[in-house]
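Hey L., structure's done. Input below.
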Amino acid sequence: ILQLYLTHFDDDPTFDKATLANLLPLLEEKVRNLNAEYRALQHNDQIETVVWRKFKARSKKLVQEGMEAHCHELDCECAAID
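Output:
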């Protein structure tokens, strides 16, 4: 309902008390599901999670710097192997 509203109207959604009372449990369930999914992603050994742990940062710039530093480390390791 919120997504439809935000797609078709330019202003902030304003709902009556009955609609809000019906939406609140749905939104709380969505938050619980997203939190559970987030925790599951943080604590598995899939490649996506390993990469996320290695390169997560507060900003895109810091992520980019981390990736560049990792590439430099890999270049150094390859040179040492050669």
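The chain has four helices and no strands. Residues 22 and 28 are 11 Å apart (CA to CA).

-- N.
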